[in-house]
Design goal:
Elements: E1 14-18, H1 23-39, E2 44-50, H2 51-57, E3 63-68, H3 73-83, E4 88-94, H4 99-105, E5 109-115, E6 131-132, H5 141-151, H6 168-181, E7 184-187, H7 200-212, E8 216-219, H8 225-236, E9 243-244, H9 251-259, E10 264-267, H10 270-277, E11 282-286, H11 291-294, E12 304-305, H12 307-315, H13 339-351
Parallel strand pairs: 1-2, 1-4, 2-3, 4-5, 5-6, 7-8, 7-10, 8-9, 10-11, 11-12
Helix pairs in contact: 1-2, 1-5, 1-10, 6-9, 7-8
Length: 352
Amino acid sequence: MSTLSKIIVPQNGSLCLLRLSAIGDVCHAAAMVHRIRTHRPDIRITWIIGKIEYQLMKGLDGVDFVVYDKKTGRQGMKAIKAQYKNMHFDVLCVMQIALRANFLSRAIRARVRLGFDKARSKEGHSLFINKRIAPQHHPHVLEGFMAFADAMSIPPAEQLQWALPLSSDDLKVGEGLADTLGSYAVICPAASKAERNWTAEGYASISKWLVNQGFKVLLCGGPAPLDRQIGDAILAAGGHVEQDLIGKTTLKELAGVLAKAKVVIAPDTGPAHMATTVGTPVVGLYAHSNPVRTGPYLNRDDVVSVYATCVEEQFGKPWQNLPWGTRAKGSTLMEKITPEQVTQVLSRVLNQ
């Protein structure tokens, strides 16, 4: 299996991308799509994507979407295989190493099946590909996706762009808030797992600090019970919140809200990366995952992270000497982050 020979997508060729989840990751993938569309608009792109993630990406210019709902399991895979039984793509990019995604890739016929380098190939990934991207040293997830474009001989982008498909109505939600409230900051407090969330008391303290700096504070998030639970806890802890929008916006409306915010504070969660796509600075809060790999791409120097300390305590060596992507484990790691650390970074970001 080769990583050296470049893959050339023929003129008017066909490309299938397989990246189902999660919100942050599909935001990273969208930057790679924009790069391809900029330099090779002739390539016909099909993207197999998750049901929730599609709600954010639908309408992306030049892309045909195939939605896979993981709840449908093998039946959903069989339906996609039947849909594309007469289609033979020039290149399939298997951009997810999870076992479900690997098996789903079998539903797609392609001359070139491009996947991750050997070091990152897990869960049988190597069995489903015939070409690899080049190895990378400590890449961010976005850079890992860009390596797929590199392998296909797509020229680098002069300027990193995402071109998130937001309508004027989506953007009006944030514009209306800015007109009504003036300068506002957004706290998106919930990650997909409770252990990755900071404390309600910490968020409440930051909300008070932001109000003292002249900002209105909004709570934002999805409809999941965990989002609502931590939102209620922040309010109970005395958070100074002007509006609680948790569960009250679509993903695209949320992007519109983030677009008009002065700053976003969030743990390792999708809205942090959505904010990056619309040009809003993010102060990310990290303990379990390495922000060098998963931090808000344009604000990797503005994270508040105790990851390095936690992972060295647990594994006895610095993260640089551990397998890339090693996670720290524990339900109380985020408690090591102090409000003083967060306000210090916020002050720097807001003054830039």
